[in-house]
Design brief:
The complex is a heterodimer of chains A (494) and B (296). Chain A has 494 residues and is mainly α. Helix content of chain A is 75%, strand content 0%. Classes of the chains: A mainly alpha (494), B alpha+beta (296).
Chain lengths: 494, 296
């Protein structure tokens, strides 16, 4: 009993344990519900799963099911990011405990309310539980905002290498605060119009209404909501990685204001989509450019740091180009997150900008189904790339070392990028090949995409199995991690 | 690691290098369904859209039991060429369209009066051949739905024979009947209900050419050399109202130049075959997965 209690304490009260549980739940849900579509459906696995688990797939409710599934996975990711933030930023212990426990109960309620409601028949108490879960997560977010309030004397930065105001307040903390505030308001931007206009009974997916010439306020707010939430999750991820990499110095001082203004402008632009759609787009471009510039500065800082540390490990004072590259690539778990941010440009940002610029000239000449393919591919890639970044960070937190670290890091980077690259080519295939001759490109890209995704899932499963077996050991890693902080808190430690 | 990368690259190259034989003949099957047959859809209410909005169409109309076939469209092209109602310009068969009102809607493109493409004659996906004077159906494709036809070409065909393209509501009622089924034949979809992606019908070969059209009325419960189909007629006896090819509809909506299609196609997953799912494209769009049928 004591052993169970200790493990429960690790899994549900420590930051590393909570992150582990979140990732495990995310993996389980993705693996289970992934069997209902794509190649698993083609292989007939879907039929077996549906029959065995008594799943009720009512055709008219597909969009609603997907919305609940997307929200369920997103809520876990939001919870994981929150655990990371409460672990990385200074705050009172009772605040940390309250935020973490509230958001944990929240996302479990979302999962155990929403998914049964969506997939096993409409029993309204489950829907109530789902809504209560979402509300708890929002409430946890409000408290996080309170805990992150940057203008508190005890959280002034001590080390002046970190971006700070004249009075010494942490600009990075302000960036986290603004991101959290924008996230909370943007969640309302989806929730209020959704409940007011949609009332939950006539669900639709945003990608299905993009060509409607007269979009309703609900259409616009749903499109805006999903874009801003994904963007803010990505910005939060970027800030977390920055803190993990001990981002500081001139690049930090340049990047943090950009992150703050970028998050704010981006969110403002998205909220303005409803009344001023055209103008809002330009504001969004401005905000995302600033935030992306901030991320670029993090990439520059971290790559310089990785090269410097890599060369130092080898005892080289000033290496040549090849030695620098070798040093940069020497630790894939540390290199991966920022590389994925760069790769994101090729599969998400540049593609998105290109499509926006050439929309009428190229993409609106295609049938709607082809345009929809780009849209869905685009945001799936953004979401999954962000997940791989968080996963690499967790691998470091989990203390993966030696050859396992190399294999884990490189397999995750190479195969996820292979999958995302393939999906990008697949979604844009009409640009390169006539419709009647597309089969080879479809075959190649789906094969590579499936191989990439399967390998990512295998790598993730390996990590989870490793951590699961560790839980069976009396003095496993978990026993030390229960008390370990996940990183430095620059406001108090320096 | 190196071995793994090598295997991956080899696999992808092997697949990518397989040439596409777009002109490969199709297996020949007679579904026994007459593409010249029409059925009457009686006036009355039905449930339209995903959320079952009660809708009334207060008139009877007739609709074709199948999509227009390559044979039928060839006959039209030859007749219309002979009487001068269509002409060859470059590599396109074109015809006159009087244009739409232009409202300067967001992303709206003006469709002015003028000649517009019906079919491209040099596209390898076209199942018709043209010797400069007459059209012929390429062997084995006679009873397949005609594809690579623009909205203008589809509309012209129907009007040539005294009909029109169905409105979206007319199409939907004919597909669904008076209950709330998501597919023309009922509430669930199986592989042998319709021609959709990876449905493994005899016309699909993902290693060579992917999914191809099936003969009209193919999914009628018959067994074709061991391939057993399910009878997938709509409540009014229409075939191919889900899968095979998208079907152009007639509606022209204010402030947009897009034309809408219904029914899903051979290249899409099952959820896109649900009765209420809409696709759209510019009216000049042609595709190997788009066809049509008419009403009168």
């Amino acid at each position: 009993m004591q052993a169970l209690k200790q493990r429960f304490k690790f899994l549900f009260l420590s930051t590393k344990g909570l992150i582990l549980v979140g990732i495990a739940m995310c993996a389980l849900i993705s693996a289970f519900f992934g069997m209902l579509s794509g190649p698993m459906a083609d292989f007939g696995i879907k039929d077996v799963i549906v029959k065995f688990f008594g799943i009720k797939l009512i055709e008219a409710e597909r969009e609603g099911r997907l919305i609940i599934l997307y929200h369920s996975i997103a809520m876990i990711v939001v919870a994981i990011e929150t655990y990371m933030i409460t672990g990385l930023l200074a705050m009172k212990e009772n605040q940390r405990l309250f935020i973490n426990s509230t958001i944990t109960i929240g996302y479990w309620a979302v999962l155990f309310g929403g998914l049964p409601f969506a997939y096993w028949g409409h029993r309204w108490p489950f829907h109530g539980l789902y809504i209560a879960g979402l509300s708890l997560i929002f409430f946890a977010g409000c408290f996080l905002l309170y805990a992150l309030f940057p203008w508190q004397k005890e959280y002034k930065v001590k080390d002046k290498q970190y971006a700070h105001t004249r009075a010494g307040y942490s600009v990075e903390r302000i960036a986290f605060f603004v991101m959290a505030l924008a996230t909370l308001l943007s969640s309302l931007f989806g929730a209020i119009p959704g409940s007011y206009y949609g009332n939950g009974f006539e669900t639709f997916l945003a990608e299905n209404v993009v060509r409607e010439p007269h979009k309703t306020a609900l259409d616009l707010s749903v499109i805006g909501h999903l874009h801003i939430m994904l963007a803010l999750i990505a910005i939060a991820c970027c800030l977390i990685i920055g803190r993990w990499m001990d981002f500081k110095g001139i690049w930090h001082k340049l990047a943090m204001p950009l992150m703050i203004v970028g998050s704010f402008v981006l969110a403002m632009g998205t909220w303005l989509v409803v009344p001023f759609e055209t103008a809002a787009h330009f504001i969004i471009y401005g905000g995302s450019t600033l935030a992306m510039l901030g991320a670029l500065f993090l990439v520059i800082f971290s790559w310089c740091k990785l090269i410097r540390e890599g060369l130092e490990r080898k005892g080289i004072k000033k290496g040549n180009f090849f030695q620098a590259v070798a040093a940069l690539l020497s630790d894939p778990v540390k290199f991966g997150p920022t590389w994925q941010m760069v790769f994101m440009n090729f599969t998400v940002s540049f593609v998105g900008i290109f499509v926006a610029v050439k929309l009428d000239e190229i993409f609106r000449k295609w049938q709607f189904m082809d345009e929809r393919l780009i849209l869905t591919g685009h945001w799936h890639i953004l979401a999954t790339l962000t997940a791989t970044i968080l996963l690499l960070y967790y691998a470091d937190l989990a203390g993966i070392k030696g050859k396992a670290r190399q294999w884990f890091g490189w397999l995750l980077i190479i195969f996820s990028d292979l999958a995302f690259g393939s999906v990008t080519v697949y979604e844009m295939k009409r640009m390169f090949v006539e419709e009647s001759s597309q089969q080879p490109i479809i075959n190649t890209t789906t094969l590579l995409g499936d191989i990439g995704l399967v390998m990512v899932l295998v790598v993730l499963a390996a990590l989870m199995v490793w951590r699961l077996t560790d839980l069976f050991k009396k003095k496993g890693k978990w026993s030390k991690e229960s008390q370990e902080p996940i990183g430095i808190q620059v406001e108090v430690n320096k | 690691m190196n071995k793994l990368i090598f295997i991956l690259l080899s696999l992808s190259l092997i697949t990518a290098c397989t040439p596409v034989d777009v002109t490969a003949p199709a297996p020949v099957f007679d579904s026994g369904v007459d593409p010249g047959r029409w059925v009457t859809i009686p006036a009355g209410t039905f449930f339209s859209g995903q959320f079952n909005k009660e809708t009334n169409l207060d008139y009877d109309y007739e609709i074709m039991v199948t999509d227009v076939t390559n044979s039928q469209y060839t006959e039209f092209l030859n007749n219309a060429l002979a009487d001068g109602s269509i002409k060859l310009v470059g590599n396109q068969i074109v015809g006159y369209y009087p244009g739409d009102p232009f409202n300067k809607g967001r992303h709206e493109e003006e469709i002015a009066a003028g000649d517009y493409i019906y079919i491209p004659i040099d596209d390898p996906a076209l199942r018709l051949s043209f010797d400069g004077k007459t059209f012929q159906v390429i062997e084995t494709w006679e009873n397949h739905p005609v594809t690579m036809v623009s909205w203008f070409g589809a509309k012209a065909y129907c009007e040539y024979y005294g009909g029109k393209l169905p409105s979206e509501l007319e199409w939907e009622k004919a597909a669904r009947g008076t209950d709330i089924r998501p597919f023309p034949w009922g509430f669930e979809i199986a592989r042998n209900n319709a021609n959709f992606i990876n449905s493994r019908d005899p016309f699909e070969d993902n290693q060579k050419f992917g999914s191809r059209t099936s003969p009209v009325g193919f999914f009628n419960g018959k067994n074709y050399e061991g391939y057993q189909t399910l009878d997938s007629a709509s409540p009014y006896g229409l075939y191919d109202m889900a899968g095979n090819v998208w079907q152009w509809t007639n509606d022209v909506y204010k402030s947009q130049h897009y034309r809408y299609m219904r029914g899903g196609s051979k290249d899409l997953y099952q959820s896109n075959l649900r009765i209420w799912v809409r696709n759209n494209a510019t009216p000049v769009f042609t595709s190997p997965s788009v066809g049509f049928r008419c009403v009168r």
